[in-house]
Amino acid sequence: MSEQEDNIVLYSAADGVAVITMNRPEYNNAQNGRMTYLLDDAFKRAVADDEVKVIVLRGAGKHFSAGHDIGTPGRDVHLSQDRVTMWYDHANKPGAEFLYVREAEAYLGMCRRWREIPKPVIAEVQGACIAGGLMLAWVCDLIVASEDAFFSDPVVRMGIPGVEYFAHPFEMPPRIAKEFLFTGHKMSAQRAYELHMVNRIVPRAMLSDEVNALAQEIAKMPRLGLALTKQAINFAEDQQGKRATMDAAFAWHHFTHAQNELVSGDRLSGYDGRKMAAENKAKDK
Ligand code: ZN
Hints:
- The protein is an alpha/beta fold.
- It has one domain (9-284): 2-enoyl-CoA Hydratase, Chain A, domain 1, CATH 3.90.226.
- Helix content is 45%, strand content 14%.
- It has ten helices and nine strands.
- The chain has a six-stranded mixed β-sheet with strand order 1-2-3-4-6-9, sandwiched between helices.
- Strand 2, helix 1 (33-48) and strand 3 (54-59) form a beta-alpha-beta unit.
- Zinc ion (ZN) binds at residues 103, 164, 253, 257.
- Zinc ion binds at residues 103, 164, 253, 257.
């Protein structure tokens, strides 16, 4: 691993709104393990601060997030982390156990934990929101996108049935979710809006102002009212099968990581960030 990057997650809070910023713009905010745990720290800080009523999650630079880090110099999947769920350390485990344990904690576990944050969270999405980026946007309660935002989950190319937080059939109608996954094509902000996956679309230059105004408005509501409203709607989604679907999909997801390793010797079927980006570009030309 290269020397540790500084300030890869930024935090600020004012007027009832905490703003958490992924700050690896040179890597399109690819999420390495360190960023994941720093995001968790930032969310905890915002939850603990009684002055904070609403949380905004955003990405610095041109893109919200290109997904999980599968190829920057700061990739750190092999490192132990100070875990937040009751899973044991993945780093010294053999075979399929290594990635299953890591993703149970750092991907599915973290995303579920963040979905349950007892304060409204708004995703501010510009540019690319790909794969692991989708997971972060989807755990937020509201999504405000700029006109140039786009969404995609191209991991079926690796032989894997979608990202670990498998919310696709809840974020869009099932037939559209299949097309989204089968093709790996980009979905425009406009299409995502039509499908009710995003709440609002605004010009890029107005994105942060729009999100801030929305956050300020929500921040005037009572804290417990907001928390319980969020719980009620999340509960309804889980009654519709969201949580159970993710449990099943996570097992299938890990069957394919293991299958990839058996067949090609690589859990990601030989793909890294560069190769995925090149094939995404060719597809969406
Ligand atoms: Zn995975």
